[in-house]
């Protein structure tokens, strides 16, 4: 909840800046986006077990000058991992999923590298919305809430690049890495950190 309030304050502040400085350089753009992502939880074993999922969100881009801009975003996205194995006694497929849903706010500095191509980097802050573990073995399915075992807050760093067309459509690629241990209960989960690769498209207006 505190993350959501903070996001609204930031977006409102950026909108206020654009009204106070209405020149062509100091203008604000709002936008929407949708994307696909591969998420994983990095542990000491360094195994890669990505979870494929989606993200949606909005942004406000405030242009400082013709090259630099600040872009806060408000995203709903899913993270976690999906571990697939085969039972040692037979050929039964086993899948263990960690499903973590977040409201996330990146605050990015954007640099216009060449015409229409932007580089972006900055911190992100996340608030946990839902957390569950799903275990699938053959036709057997079990789902349990693990919200008490997962940290309610996450933060990390994001960097990437985006391309903006003359019609205000854009496409981007971004990588994020968490700095906070996701596991709240070390008895049930080992020390883990979020990583995510995002591919997204959107429109600015």
From TrEMBL:
Positions of the Outer membrane protein beta-barrel domain: 18-182
Origin superkingdom: Bacteria
Pfam families named in the record: OMP_b-brl_2
Protein name in the entry: Outer membrane protein beta-barrel domain-containing protein
Organism: Psychroflexus salis
């Amino acid at each position: 909840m505190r993350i959501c309030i903070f996001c609204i304050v930031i977006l409102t502040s950026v909108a206020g800046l654009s009204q106070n400085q209405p020149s062509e350089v100091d203008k604000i753009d709002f936008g929407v986006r949708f994307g696909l992502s591969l998420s994983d939880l990095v542990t000491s074993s360094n195994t890669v077990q990505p979870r494929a999922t989606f993200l949606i969100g909005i942004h406000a881009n405030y242009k400082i000058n013709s090259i630099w801009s600040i872009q806060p975003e408000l995203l709903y996205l899913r993270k976690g991992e999906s571990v697939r194995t085969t039972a040692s006694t037979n050929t039964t497929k086993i899948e263990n999923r960690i499903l973590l849903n977040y409201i996330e706010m990146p605050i990015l500095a954007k640099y216009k590298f060449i015409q229409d191509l932007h580089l972006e980097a900055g911190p992100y802050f996340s608030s946990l919305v839902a957390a569950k573990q799903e275990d699938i073995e053959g036709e057997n399915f079990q789902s349990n809430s693990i919200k008490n075992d997962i940290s309610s807050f996450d933060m990390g760093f994001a960097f990437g690049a985006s391309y903006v067309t003359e019609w205000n459509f854009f496409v981007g690629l971004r990588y994020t890495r968490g700095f906070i241990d996701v596991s709240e209960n070390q008895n049930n989960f080992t020390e883990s950190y979020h990583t995510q690769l995002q591919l997204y498209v959107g429109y600015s207006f």
